[in-house]
Amino acid sequence: MNMLKKKSHPKFNVPNFGAKHRKRVKARWRKQRGIDNKKRIKKDFMGAVPSIGYRNPEAIRGLRGSGRVGVVVHNAGEMLALAGKLDRQNFDVIIAHAVSKRKRSTIIKIANSNGIRIANGGSV
Questions:
Q1: pLDDT tens track of the chain, all 124 residues?
Q2: CB within 8 A of 64, min separation 6: which ones?
Q3: Which of 5, 20, 32, 68 could form a disulfide with 37 if both were Cys (CB 3.0 to 4.6 A apart)?
Q4: Is residue 124 included in any domain, yes or no?
Q5: Which domain, by its residues, includes 76?
């Protein structure tokens, strides 16, 4: 099987992102709409503009860096439901951000007993 790798792309920032007087400009992309804007006209010196050419192949879209699909779990019930039907080689479990330390530890115990990999297990 031919393993595909995700493409890399440049950072798409707003113009003058690094300028001293533009500290208020956040590192995010907004489409340029000014009539004289050089980035809108796609001048090379202004940096890259997001376009369809940066899209990844359909086979690997939405996968994590490890090449597995990420499944978000919010509680122990969801973890138990997944434990029975997950293909352990193709999935990573991600514990939701808002889960407390106590519930996180129970989710990790369930995953360890079923041999499921947790992407953000970390220390509890």
A1: 346 788 888 888 877 666 777 667 677 788 889 899 898 999 998 889 999 999 989 988 888 888 888 999 999 999 999 888 877 778 889 999 999 999 999 999 999 998 889 999 876 5
A2: 70, 92, 119
A3: 32
A4: no
A5: 59-114
